[in-house]
Amino acid sequence: MTDTRTDTDLIIAGGGLAGATLALALARVVPELRVTVVETFPLSPDALPEDYQPSYDARSTALAWGSRLIFENLGLWQVLAEHATPIHHIHVSDRGRFGATRLHAQDHGQAALGYVADNRWMGLSLMRALLDTPVSWQAPAEVTGMTPMPGGVRVEIRKGDDQYSLTGQCLVVADGGRSGLREQLGFVTRTEDYGQNALIANVSTSDAHGFTAFERFTEAGPMALLPHGSPVTAENQSALVWTLTDSALEQVLALSDDQRCQALQERFGWRLGRFTRIGECHHYPLKLTTVDEAVRPGVALVGNAAHALHPVAGQGFNLALRGLMTLVEQFRRAVDEGTPLGDLSILGEYQRLHRQDWQQTVQFSDSLIRVFGQSLPPLAAARDAGLVGLDLVPGAKRWFARKAMGTGGRKPIVSRADCSKEPARNDQ
């Protein structure tokens, strides 16, 4: 089903990880659709580097086991795994107290609980895969507005000094939580400020991480250390997410690298030996941002444009990915039924199916931050009992593991002829 009265069928505003993944999934599952991606950065599938050299300071994303399964169905996992470090164990603890819980992949019959993937490699792999699809690109360009029209939408685009319009059946906003397009289109967001900042960097330690992800809750805020780097050459490298108040962030940023390692040592402890190196530090304020109504006729929000979570639980991109596949599933249904992509019966069903997942994931992530952010002795004791209970009660531990692995929610149907082959296995 294509509508020859429009320039394209679907317009995706944003060609980052979410937008590119959506474009690839549509090319695999709904190949009949004409898809156009509008991206502000000068990215193009026609001009990609031939080789890839990982950097120590490369940013990364935590991928749950369920996200690996999605990328397998899309035929991309074997490539992504080249620069993805498996998480075999998760250790959750409360600094200065006895409570702790541990998850092990082998206890759940899995090759890994999740992975830490290099963002730049993920983007490059997606773009290379898109080379073999008919997806078209407008880059560098920016969506500046949208007007409903019979049978679809008219999207205004700025490319350099040029202004032009593109018509399609539906616009998908996938340009992140900081873009103004969402507000410009009239979507109302709810934001809760945690009063904290995330400092992100790669670190090296004297002891090997053993493919263990550490979630460490402290009186000053949570922190996470995720195994990162080649399993052969970087068993002592981890990706750090360090939660800091405004004043604490200023103090840490004013320190030398050696002093930052010392401050991190004091906060995290010695489970990985001595911190020997900290790389380039990035930071941003932490807010819980949600949109109650993420769709309207002709337009849908996905990824961080629809919901932005605290990063310490590593749920953000995994939730976004599941939402993308749910949207693809509904677009597949629209094509099969001959319904316009932007019809509210299609977009409303996407929102309904995805809503329970994002509500549960937001509640899970937000409750971790709020419960472990309390320092009152009775609450601290209750946290310890809860962590010990998770470690001892099989049912509770399985529930926690499903949340961590991203396998506890609804599983969108994404298989089609082009991506139903047996997925390649690469467990590193």
Automatic annotation (TrEMBL):
Biased composition (Basic and acidic residues): 418-428
InterPro entries, A to Z: FAD-bd, FAD/NAD-bd_sf, UbiH/COQ6, UbiH/COQ6_monooxygenase
Residue ranges constituting the FAD-binding domain according to the UniProt record: 7-336
PANTHER family from the UniProt entry: 2-OCTAPRENYL-6-METHOXYPHENOL HYDROXYLASE, UBIQUINONE BIOSYNTHESIS MONOOXYGENASE COQ6, MITOCHONDRIAL
Top EC class, one word: oxidoreductase
Coiled coil: none
Source species: Marinobacter excellens LAMA 842
Keywords, sorted A to Z: FAD, Flavoprotein, Monooxygenase, Oxidoreductase
Family stated for the protein in its record: Belongs to the UbiH/COQ6 family.
Protein name as catalogued: 2-octaprenyl-6-methoxyphenol hydroxylase
Record-listed E.C. numbers: 1.14.13.-
Pathway: Cofactor biosynthesis; ubiquinone biosynthesis
Region spans: Disordered: 409-428
Cofactors required: FAD
SUPFAM superfamilies registered for this protein in UniProt: FAD/NAD(P)-binding domain
Keyword Oxidoreductase in annotation: yes
GO terms assigned for molecular function: 2-octaprenyl-6-methoxyphenol hydroxylase activity; FAD binding
BP GO annotations: ubiquinone biosynthetic process
